[in-house]
Every structure is written in C-alpha cells, then in structure tokens.
Amino acid sequence: MNDMINSLPPVSQMMRESGLEPKKQFGQNFLFDLNLTGRIARSVPNIEKSLVIEVGPGPGGLSRALLMAGARSVIAIEKDKTTEPILSQIVAASGGRFKVIYDDALRVDIEKIAGEKFSICANLPYNIGTELLINWLHDIARGVQISSLTLMFQREVASRIVAHTGDTQYGRLAVLTSLVADAQILFGVPSTAFVPRPRVESAVVQIIPNAEKIKNVGDISALENLTARLFGMRRKMIRGIIRDVDWSEFGLNGTERAEDLSPEKFLEISKKLVA
C-alpha cells in the first residue's frame, strides 16, 4: 500500500499542477521536506496501531508521511477546499486508510469524528494553533481518549507550553498543559523548511495525556478563566487583581504574581473559588 503512496508525484509538483498556493487567511505554511515530515510522523507513539487525526493537511505532505510511517488510518480536517484535487489523489492511493473532512477544526467534534481512541499529529496553522490546543486540553480533561498530540508550533508558543513556574515563558498554556499531560519539545524546525517561509522558527511539541493528573483536575473551565485573569495582568500582585479572597487560605499573602504560582496552586485556587 505504501508503494502507491510513494509513487505519487512530489508535493511541489502536485501543487503546481493544481494551481494551489498557500493562503494567508488560513495561516498556511506548507512543508515539502520529506525527511522532516517523516521525522514528525515517526514521532507519533505506536503509530502503526493508531488512528491519527491531522488538522490542516494542506497539500498532504505530512499526511503522506503518516501513511508511509504505517498509521493504521489517518483522518484529516481541512478548511480549504481548494486542496481537494491533491488530497483526493492521496485518498485514492491510500487503500482506504486516508479520509478528509472539509470543515473548520475549531468547530468539529473531534471525538465523534474519531469514534475511538486516537492520536493527533499536525503542522498547525499559526493563526489557530493555540486555540486548538486549549480545546484539546479541555477534551483531555473531560476524558476524551486522546493517546498523544504531536504538534508543530511557533518556537515561542512551544516554549510557553513546556515552561515551568518562574520561567519567563510561563503562563496559562504551561499551567493548563501540565495539569493534564506531560509535554516536551522534540526538535526545532527552521523557517527555511516552510513555503512560504515564515518570519519565525518552529518546534515540534509532544503532549502525552497523564491519567493520574486528569483524575485530579475535572473540568478546567474555571482554571482557564483564572489563568487568563491573573496572567492577563502578570506584573500585578494577585491581591490587586482579585480583591475578595483571603489568600492565606492558600498559603499565600497576596503579594505574589501569577508567574510565582505553580500549576497545582492555580488548580487549588480555581476549585475553591468556584466551590
């Protein structure tokens, strides 16, 4: 089956033949480097047993790599229907292992689309990457069976996801992620790997949901609201942001700033404030 995928023309050729060009409104930056797409695909844990959801496949470079790496099946969610002439060729060559849903990834019910336990792997559109991640963290917290997330972000965003308390990059992404999962940066990706070339460097982040952590969290809506509120004024003392709280209940004096609070402390505060 991989022979059929491997026999497809290069992605760049398929783009020329179809007249497809990256669209700024969709935050599209395409990957043509086969070594790089292959490396990302092979980073998906247990890929040969996995259903993989991909967001924003564009001309299908990563889609092809996932199939070549042995993914049991791949479901791609793509908003841009002008990619259909290219993606339909991958569908035809996949032997039933590749399916494309043309819809907005921010609106679809990813759990319903999958219908089983799944992994997510994507070169995320820059303009919605953070919003998608937060949606998926909510899904993880409520028990959606996501095995792993292997995601491309701008390097700055990647650093914010894996940051620790006190780090310059520490903020709500780090808090939300660390309370439901374990995250690490796998490798960096130079801007020269993309077409068009972005002004920023990128990195691949892997996020593995942690069942023990998830049991202690529950709904993270209150937690998200609290982190947004405190990190939204991160240079102010917390007692100046939320005034009607006895901070001593949490072992604090109120002079702390958001960056001083551990993820666990954020969780403790959020649970008490909504009780």
User: How many helices in DSSP terms?
Assistant: 13
End-to-end separation in angstroms reads 55 Å
The percentage helix is: 25-40%
Secondary-structure element order, as H and E?
Answer: HHEHEHEHEHEHEHHEEEHHHH
Largest sheet: 7 strands, mixed
In the predicted model, the low-confidence regions spanning at least 5 consecutive residues are: none
Largest sheet strand order: 4-3-2-5-6-9-7
Proportion of β residues? 15-25%
Structural class: alpha/beta
Overall geometry comes to elongated
Give average pLDDT, whole number: 92
Query: What is the CA-atom radius of gyration, in angstroms?
Result: 20 Å
Number of strands: 9
Structural commentary:
The N and C termini lie far apart (55 Å). The model has no long low-confidence stretch (mean pLDDT 92). The strands form two sheets. This protein has a seven-stranded mixed β-sheet with strand order 4-3-2-5-6-9-7, with helices on both faces. Strands 1-8 form a two-stranded antiparallel sheet. It contains 13 helices and nine strands. The radius of gyration is 20 Å and the shape is elongated. β2 (51-55), α4 (61-68) and β3 (73-78) form a beta-alpha-beta unit. It has 275 residues and is an alpha/beta fold. α3 crosses α4 (61-68). The chain is 39% helix and 19% strand.
